[in-house]
What does this fold into?
Amino acid sequence: MSHHPFDQALQLMPGQAANTFAGATAPDYWNMVGPFGGYTAALAVRAVMQHPALLGEPVALTVNYAGATTQGPFTVTATPARTSRSTQHWVIALSQTDPTGQPEVAMTATIMTALKRDTWHANDMPMPVVTPVNAATKDRRDGAPVWFDRYDMRFVHGRSPAQFDGREASSVTQLWMRDEPPRPLDFASLTAMADVFYPRVWLRRAKRVAAGTVSMTTYFHASQAQLSDVGTGYLLGQAQAQAFRHGFFDQTAQLWSEDGTLLATSTQLVYYKE
Amino acid sequence: MSHHPFDQALQLMPGQAANTFAGATAPDYWNMVGPFGGYTAALAVRAVMQHPALLGEPVALTVNYAGATTQGPFTVTATPARTSRSTQHWVIALSQTDPTGQPEVAMTATIMTALKRDTWHANDMPMPVVTPVNAATKDRRDGAPVWFDRYDMRFVHGRSPAQFDGREASSVTQLWMRDEPPRPLDFASLTAMADVFYPRVWLRRAKRVAAGTVSMTTYFHASQAQLSDVGTGYLLGQAQAQAFRHGFFDQTAQLWSEDGTLLATSTQLVYYKE
It folds into this structure.
């Protein structure tokens, strides 16, 4: 077991009941009122990848943040719902014990895994031309939540506004990123990095309003071998909103390796207060 | 109950067990080896919207096509996993009886519903300028699956290649569409229309290979009141692939009303054979 904080935070022990895993939230990945959502999503991936019945590698993940995850122990249930020769569909839940002693669901998720084959391939979303990672400056932010310190983030476009003055602008952010300290990329860390983008509504409006992800979907276009090739290299992440309405906005996101391989695409729906 | 084929196909009867609904596949929405996936996804939405515990309206949907749905009866299970004051998270499965008499899961899904409030709003994905619906020609296609006849589709860009000659091209499709015969728009029909786009890999490569959606996520930016405003009007749909690799490609999609309101955004992962 690696001593990296991410691996420590993701530790899951097989539970008494079939398909269950026991874990506990980690201070290293704490956000404002709960864990960093990317970490919680990574727990679903980790549970499936530790399951003895696993077939293949993750290709699709959806997590739904159903309620606040509180500090302390939790149970992840990962059940294979259907297995074919080359694909497998999983249903996942993360539960905690509520103050009355009853289990309460904090996250639901589905994951599809598959044996990855070599096929015709193409990238219709080429990596944008941006400042190279060596010329980009590491972001330091006073008063940011703890989990920010677990990533080396180098914004090249759409950094969080220096002044929240209500000036409306584009919702595009581009940044180089990797784990801090560096850690070889895997499906769990790629899952978490798909959620590093701060709320688009802050950038779009130059206004801080209460906001939090309610659902996130990520497709993994890379194989484990391709993730191993990236190693501790940086990823370029890009996120952009599509619509803001009725207290929810969505964003699409892409994550490329430094050599331009599109490793993952992601989308999420985010609650905002006003 | 409307006599429209879509409403007939979506009929669900409350089952004996809590949270269950009984239905049957409909010949009107048949695809090549199973029902049109947009119809199957709409069943998840319909089950939740018929559930007596429903809070609010759909905001996020993910469906996973875990195995082939065969002609005949099925059971939809829709369980509220967590309910707050203004949001609700659902876990859904569609099952059929396998040849040995055991239940087998054909689809898993999650839905988030919420009370929709008026807030600051913006559209960062404006409707593209295209041929108006009145000037677009209704698509007729010999040998297309039955469900094609249930939609009035008017392609304005990226129609299926006239010749499958292996010439690689853009993966963008834009089309006007509505139910055939016309039917007032609701969340179920909007869900189905987010899946009308034929496989991007056919367009991108001008080559027909076996392909089928394995997972789809749709975010509903419109309220029921906005859908009612659309009525039987046409929607403009746009779909575009991002990456093709390891036998799966993804696409992003947007659906606008004729007046330019972004009603829904969607993404899906599609299996392709070679």
The first helix of chain A runs from residue 5 to 9. The two ends of chain A are 44 Å apart (CA to CA). The CA atoms of residues 85 and 255 of chain A lie 29 Å apart.
